[in-house]
Design goal:
Structural class: alpha+beta
Number of helices: 8
Order of helices and strands: EEEEEHEEEHEHEEEEEEHEHEEEEHHH
Largest sheet: 5 strands, mixed
Strand content: 15-25%
């Protein structure tokens, strides 16, 4: 196969002959001269004019993307960078997907694309690379400290948790006098085993739990894993990756694993909200906030990307409220140089807030307040964007529907 790079084409032109045959020319020029070996022509027979039009538009879009300037966020303003592209080999047994240094998520798809920051010597998603990290603005979701992180005792070396050859019975004896959340790594029957005394945050309801670590050989190298999809060369990296997901809070040789009079009072305390705990046997019912004429700004369960798509080309200050992953968020159009802002709405003690200073009884009260503050205020909201789905809903709604919604709203029922 011969490969062509979109950025090498000087023009993309569509022509037709005798109204029967259509052509798309992808031409590469050196000065005024056409270079046939670096050019390409697509031919479309009669009846395929619509296909020709679609492909022409897609090729134009690809060419614009390939030549587009790389958007740099606040962390990379003066950095040197290039576009990163990598094709995954289908026949390889080794996981080849790279991950973003900023968000930690993998690049998806067979053809991975992103930004290679030469200054940082790391790879980034385009969105992560372009995000602004200052306090007032940014495209990234607002992040907050997780109280669970405070439970995880740092480790200095493998000796903090590894006890060598040991069977299950002796592991239980070692864990018995320790705090809930204490863990051991031991070696038994030719493999590593993680033994732990489950914390109240842990969905495991046994006195002790023992997790065997599996081994796989890929291209002549041995890898170990606890869950498929995440393999590591050594036990230290495996433990580091799974500390939070498997509630491995206190390494057994750490002073924090000791059960003292002071910390014994917290043994029965759960620091993770019940809805965050992992479970496979409890059904989950998602109840959307009821649509009513007062909440025209509410767009339901949509992602950040969907919100930005709806707000695209809207006036500065236009906003919507969405609800996903158990959290309310405001998405707002900023000046063109800043794109969009996404802010978390805190919902505690049945009140809503954007800051610690002001709390409101309802989302409507919060939105009304910030629509009427000084436009120079960083939380100022302009015009709400009405959910297109709710507009259709309102047109078909009867007087009885409205009465039922108002009654439910007064009783605070879904």
């Amino acid at each position: 196969y011969q490969h062509f790079k979109m950025q090498d084409f000087s023009e993309i032109r569509k022509t037709s002959h005798d109204k029967e045959t259509s052509y798309i020319h992808l031409n590469h020029y050196q000065g005024p001269s056409l270079v046939p070996s670096s050019s390409l022509v697509f031919r479309f027979p009669f009846g395929k004019q619509s296909d020709c039009e679609d492909i022409h538009n897609k090729l134009e879009e690809l060419r614009k993307k390939s030549s587009a300037e790389i958007m740099k966020g606040s962390d990379h303003l003066d950095h040197d960078c290039i576009v990163f592209r990598k094709e995954i080999n289908d026949n390889s047994e080794v996981m080849q997907h790279e991950s973003c240094k900023d968000c930690g998520n993998f690049f998806k798809g067979k053809l991975q694309t992103g930004i290679n920051c030469l200054t940082c010597n790391d790879l980034f998603h385009k969105e992560c690379f372009a995000s602004n990290k200052d306090d007032d603005y940014g495209t990234a979701e607002e992040k907050f400290d997780d109280p669970e992180d405070l439970l995880i005792t740092p480790t200095d070396s493998r000796e903090d948790f590894y006890l060598g050859e040991m069977d299950q019975k002796n592991a239980n004896k070692k864990l018995k006098p320790k705090r809930r959340g204490t863990f051991i790594v031991r070696f038994s029957k030719d493999r590593f085993v993680i033994s732990k005394k489950p914390h109240k945050n842990d969905p495991i309801r046994k006195e002790y739990d023992h997790l065997p670590v599996s081994t796989v050989t890929l291209t002549g190298e041995k890898w170990i894993y606890l869950e498929k999809g995440f393999a590591f060369k050594n036990i230290d990296d495996l433990i580091k990756h799974h500390r939070k997901s498997h509630k491995l809070y206190f390494p057994i040789n750490s002073p924090d694993s000791e059960l003292t009079e002071r910390n014994s009072m917290t043994e029965e305390i759960q620091t993770i909200a019940p809805e965050r705990r992992q479970t496979n046997n409890i059904p989950q019912i998602n109840v959307e906030e009821p649509n009513n004429s007062k909440d025209e700004f509410m767009h339901g369960d949509i992602s950040k990307e969907d919100a930005e798509e709806r707000l695209k080309d809207k006036a500065e200050g236009t906003f919507l409220v969405r609800h996903n992953n158990g959290t309310y968020k405001i998405s707002l159009v900023l000046p063109s140089s800043r794109n969009f802002k996404h802010s978390v709405i805190h919902h505690t003690d049945e009140k809503f807030s954007l800051t610690n200073q002001k709390k409101f009884e309802s989302l409507k009260d919060l939105v009304d307040n910030y629509m009427n503050v000084n436009p120079k205020n960083k939380w100022f909201l302009g015009k709400p964007l009405t959910d297109p789905n709710s507009e259709k809903f309102f047109k078909n709604r009867t007087d009885d529907d409205i009465k039922i919604e108002r009654d439910l709203s007064r009783r605070k029922e879904p």
